[in-house]
Amino acid sequence: MAMVVLTPLLAILGILLLKLIYDSLSCYWLTPLRIKKTMDMQGVRGPKPRFFTGNILDMASLVSKATSQDMKTISHDIVGRLLPHFLLWSSQFGKRFLYWNGSEPRLCLTETELIKEFLSKHSTVSGKSWQQRQGSKNFIGEGLLMANGEDWYHQRHIVAPAFMGDRLKSYAGHMVECTKEMLQSLKIALESGQTEVEIGHYMTKLTADIISRTEFGTSYQKGKKIFHLLTLLQSRCAQASRHLCIPGSRFFPSKYNREIKSLKMEVETLLMEIIQSRKDCVEIGRSNSYGNDLLGMLLNEMQKKKKGNGNNNSSINLQLVMDQCKTFFFAGHETTALLLTWTVMLLASNTSWQDKVRAEVKSVCNGGIPSLDQLSKLTLGQRKKREIS
């Protein structure tokens, strides 16, 4: 009797083991070999990949060497410093070449017309790769930044109203208030005797404060805490993603994976507290909607879909709401903070333009705080941009 039961079980286990071996061989050897041969036939070549790691070690070595010393002068030509492998491989293999991020192929295109054709004809079937999506799965989840195809189109349609002109104008008061607080803290630092400040830190805090208020409304203090946790989570996910080329690495009980799990739970617990407080206000009749900020719009959309479908299997669920909040909160603040930091650096290194901009602001705003109507009259930067183009 035991043999009758064990025989089919062993057969099933054997089949599963063979499938696992085949899938691993296919992922790490057969599929990359097929892709490489196909690209070779089309004349697209690239650096020789290593087993498992592809060209990751080559890229790390080149970047480490390029950034080993400080920049001697401020220069806009920083591609060779940040992406030295692109410059090296394009000089060796031409305007299009293939390199490997572990077992994933990456095609580098530098021809404008080919890029336009790709984006216009194949945008619906292109998108983020498995490694990119897996690397950010515990960080920003499956929000707009990591969505592909129809999911991307649907999510973009849902969040687009949050960035319409009139809605953005309504955030002006929050932006002014946060900027005044940032300038005050900067003034206090200088008055205390500091001769140098890390301006990037102040710009990061400024954009985080603004998005905390515009995305979470009155719960912006919790939003600031979420930002801090997301910063830590990004760092841990970036470290863990370096090992994604190793089979099963995301399941290892490593220090990174344990910290990632803990941080993700903290972030989502805080988000759930904010979401629940919005739901409670609607349920007890204190409010007839979840709010007009990004979080409120997402919750209103989720509720509308539930009513329309008559069940909880809506196209936007609670997890996706949290993923969208994390996406726009972190990705939105980081890009803006970098832009502001770069702008301040350029003004600091070009004092003549600093004087011109300051004079224009004083003239247009009469020494007061700029209003929305006055922003369109600050044309000095726009004129310079037209001259350059």
UniProtKB/TrEMBL annotation:
The keyword Metal-binding applies. Gene3D superfamilies: Cytochrome P450. It comes from Glycine max (Soybean). The gene is LOC100808392. It comes from the Eukaryota. This is Cytochrome P450. It is a single-pass membrane protein. GO terms for molecular function: heme binding; iron ion binding; monooxygenase activity; oxidoreductase activity, acting on paired donors, with incorporation or reduction of molecular oxygen. Its main location: membrane. It is found in: Membrane. Keywords: Heme, Iron, Membrane, Metal-binding, Monooxygenase, Oxidoreductase, Transmembrane, Transmembrane helix. Belongs to the cytochrome P450 family. InterPro entries: Cyt_P450, Cyt_P450_E_grp-I, Cyt_P450_sf, Cytochrome_P450_Monooxygen. GO terms for cellular component: membrane.
